[in-house]
Design brief:
By secondary structure, the protein is of the alpha/beta class. It folds into three domains: 86 residues, Arc Repressor Mutant, subunit A; 139 residues, Nucleotidyltransferase, domain 5 (2-Layer Sandwich), CATH 3.30.420; 153 residues, Nucleotidyltransferase, domain 5, CATH 3.30.420.40. A hairpin with a 3-residue loop joins strand 9 and strand 10. The radius of gyration is 22 Å and the shape is globular. The two termini are 33 Å apart.
């Protein structure tokens, strides 16, 4: 049984409150309600890092007794950890509770057009280990063989008991890979294998755990939502620079995936190209565009796909790509802001942090040089997860499915 507090709170937290009797939080029975209340508590602790039980009760509207029961159960399950008692002027000291990093673990598989990463993360999103494979183009057999060899290496980083706490495998991958043969120079026959192979079922059988699949850029956006640091805007558009640019959309604090899972797929958005003619954003703001320019100029682009920390690219080529990408982003943002009142736009990608900061600044400048009449321009900010957002976002899918409130992005489960 739960108690519902007044929706208006004197502590100013009303806008952040998660109300357990909202339809999205209702279980179909008492056990379902208990599970939802546990997710509610875990979601709040992920958002606020550490909270005393009294704070949890005030912010959720649950009774103090209900919160105590939930917290004890979650602590017994190893999901919560106690902090040092905080003594006030009067009364008993409060004990802040926080998520235990060893409470659960998750695997995230990023299937990219040039490489695959299998990552082990803990309950807080800390990367415990990663295995990587670089290839010319992805095939189902290559990916399955990679997971088969990489999974035991990752599990070797955990004690045997901890390995039993792995909650699932999330897969972040571009949808309809067979349509990208021209762009990545892959044989059509080999890429057509993606049409017929059920990679989700194969990985579930191989790993012996539930497998969830999501579009790779959407998953990267989910990583920002679940593991991102700093202020989390309620409504934001997210851009991720990979081989091809992609994106995701968060509305009212929830990942919006749409009917087919491709909502927020910004790549096809029409924008003016460098010559003034309309092009797709994917054709002016993808890493493949920079790589092609480097190869034509005799500068090897191979290192772009192997690592992200340092780029060896001549400044004129880099500046030209940054300006073109920023102009494309600015026009795409303007179109999106005309349709949806966005609080912020976040930019991240497989790139050095200095390059990410540069393209963010250039995009802000380019946006404010456009005609913004009637538009409340969103803040343009850097993402906070970084280059590994796709793999971390993949791991966040089973985490969200099992432990968070209505993240609306569990993917498809096997």
């Amino acid at each position: 049984m739960t108690d519902q507090a007044d929706a208006k709170s004197s502590d100013g937290l009303a806008s952040d409150r998660l109300l357990p009797d909202d339809p999205a939080f209702r279980g179909t029975n008492q056990a379902g309600m208990r599970a939802q209340n546990e997710r509610l508590v875990l979601t709040l602790l992920r958002q606020h890092m550490a909270l005393a039980k009294s704070d949890i009760a005030r912010m959720t509207g649950l009774s103090a007794q209900t919160v105590s029961v939930i917290v004890r159960a979650l602590e017994r399950d190893g999901l919560l950890a106690r902090g040092a008692p905080q003594r006030g002027r009067i009364g008993q000291p409060s004990i802040p509770m926080s998520l235990s990093p060893d409470g659960a673990f998750f695997l995230g598989l990023k299937i990219g057009r040039r490489s695959a990463d299998l990552t082990l993360v803990d309950f807080l999103g800390n990367v415990r280990a990663t295995e990587r494979k670089v290839y010319r183009y992805p095939t189902p057999t290559t990916v399955v063989d990679f997971v088969q060899s990489a999974q035991p290496k990752l599990l070797a980083h955990l004690p045997e008991a901890a390995a039993e706490r792995i909650g699932g495998l999330g897969v972040a991958m571009p949808f309809q890979l067979w349509n990208w043969v021209t762009s990545i120079g892959a044989p059509q026959a080999e890429m057509d294998a993606w049409r017929h192979r059920d990679i989700q079922a194969e990985l579930a059988a191989l790993t012996g755990m539930p497998v969830f699949v999501q579009n790779d850029a959407t998953a990267a956006c989910g990583a920002e939502l679940v593991f991102g640091t700093g202020e989390r805007p309620k409504d934001f558009l997210y851009f991720y620079f990979g081989t091809f640019i992609g994106g995701g959309l968060v509305l009212n604090g929830q990942l919006f995936t749409g009917r087919t899972g491709n909502a927020g797929g910004v790549g096809p958005m029409p924008v003016p190209g460098p010559d003034g003619r309309t092009q797709r954003l994917i054709d002016v703001a993808s890493l493949s565009i920079l790589a092609d320019a480097m190869d034509r100029a005799g500068e090897s682009s191979d290192h772009l796909w192997a690592q992200h920390a340092t780029w060896a690219v001549s400044q004129p080529l880099l500046d030209a790509w940054l300006d073109s990408a920023a102009q494309g982003l600015a026009h795409a943002i303007l179109s999106a802001a005309a349709l949806i009142e966005l609080e912020a736009v976040l930019i991240d990608g497989w790139m050095p942090t200095a390059v990410r900061a540069d393209i963010t600044a250039r995009t802000h400048k380019a946006l404010h040089q456009l005609d913004l009449a009637g538009i409340d321009p969103p803040m343009i900010r850097q993402g906070t997860v970084g280059a590994d957002a796709r793999a971390l976002g993949a791991a966040a899918i089973p985490l969200s499915h099992r432990y968070l409130i209505d993240q609306n992005a569990p993917g498809r489960e096997t």
